[in-house]
Amino acid sequence: MENQKNFLTTAPYKGTRDFYPEEMRxxxxxxxxxxxxxxxxxxxxxxxxVLESFDLYKAKSGEEIVERQLYDFIDKGERRVAIRPEMTxxxxxxxxxxxxxxxxxxxxxxxxxxxxxxxxxxxxxxxxWQLNVDLFGVDTYxxxxxxxxxxxxxxxxxxxxxxxxxxxVSHRKLLDSFLKTTLKLNEDQVHGVSKLLDKKSKxxxxxxxxxxxxLLNNAQEQLPLIExxxxxxxxxxSEIPGIDSESVSFIRNLFRELGELGVGKQLTFDxxxxxxxDYYTGCIFEVFDTNPENRRxxxxxxxxxxxxxxxxxxxxxxxxxxxxxxxxxxxxEGHNLIPDLGRQTTVFLPIMDESLFLETSKLSKELxxxxxxxxxxxxxxxxxxxxxxxxxxxxxxxxxLGESEIQSESVQIKDLVSGEQKSLxxxxxxxxxxxxxxx
Length: 439
What we know:
Homodimer. The chain is α+β, with helices and mostly antiparallel strands.
């Protein structure tokens, strides 16, 4: 008996996805809507290498990413490199490297492929794509205003209805003043408590209390103050002793102007927004899905005034956000916002007879040159089987070019959805298809 051959698995690497044509159409549509929205604000697209020096992430990324999530290795030149887990360090390097030649403000965006070694779950994979939008060179809250307008406009461009998402905003200086002035914690305590607050919503109340008590000076007095801070509103947060009043005024002014620009109903002040990255220094925000089955953060960002400090002595303020394709897809599916992405704008041409292949190809060439997407069969199988191919591929319109149509300088068009079929003149066919059939 012959040994059975062991075939390789057809499954993709854990935490990654295969994009068959149907999934690729969805991905391209999502990217096109995001790209169109950001371009409308005057932003320019950039990209960088997938591989970077390990030192770049060691210096610019959070501890969790570097220690547990980074795909890193030694290359053949004995250099330690890493596959990018986020785009911001690359962005900082690029901006610092060409700083003198960049007109201010710098408005850039990208949709890079990113990798993190983490446990895959809903909304979280090891490989994903992420829209990154960043604005450099504006020190006032108008930078926050524009970034939040873009974050809001993207979901509206996808057709997100009122109330389907919420933009929660806070400020790192509020948290810093609360921890350092109100609670009187030292730097090590501030670091530990802020990290714990960032994951508070992901652990039980008992676990949170057990972990935070050792970090405090007087848990009995400080725990109630922490709960007061986390539940405060924009109206009463300034009543907490030691809170940074400038940050409160900053957010109030920001909310007032965003309200006049039509974003007010989506905005909420939430001091529990921490943002895990160490480089955020000012206003921070997260966009949350309100779908009961997907109540989670979709994306977020904030200000990072010292981001290029490792590369340049010059200071350049920056603000930005990242929107991942996995969480966006979950949001769009949860709110039924994905349109029919079938191939209804592409025509299908069967081969009526082997002798008509060249004439059919000429018609296809003519249609493509006039902007009509066209697929032509390459053999003359039975017409019924060719129509089945068109139906299986999701086409709506089929054009027939037979001997009689060639003689009468016409074509037959069939709508596979309605079943209707009629004759169209060959002359001016492309214009007719665009006008009457929206092709």
